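haha ok so turns out i had the wrong file open the whole time. this is the CORRECT one, sorry everyone. sequence first:
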Amino acid sequence: MMIIRGRVWKYGDDVDTDVIIPGKYLRTTDVNVFAQHAMEGIDPTFSPQEGDVIVAGKNFGCGSSREQAVLALKYAKIGCVVARSFARIFFRNAINVGLPIIQADVVDLVENGDEIEVDLSQGSVKTRDSAVQGVKLPPFLQRILEDGGLIEHRRKNPVQTL
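then structure:
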């Protein structure tokens, strides 16, 4: 069971990968640099504590397919991203690197700094005043997230060959 509790960082629709991690930081492979500059293109005050939750509108992670956007959030210690919808490649990259995400419509129910609870195993989100049923991830995707991403999942569950 994966329960994530944290403070809300609220954003709107169409948060693209260029504002999640601006292109000028892509010359490095240092995930700590990505973490230090996460969300810099949209929110210079972004300074999450471990486990904080990003809540956004529709199409979160649109734009380029850069995996560094997901890595920036993961290494900034974001506990989960909750959005009305995700760009397809961002969604897949998040699962692959082990960044918990859930599709749920709570952006109008929270404000910056609110406490929020996400239950990934149930696909639900609790805000200060509401409980919202989101889209529950299939069990195989939940297992990949619980293992810390696709590479760790494969290490723990080697593919059987015939």
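DSSP finds six helices and seven strands in the chain.
again sry for the mixup
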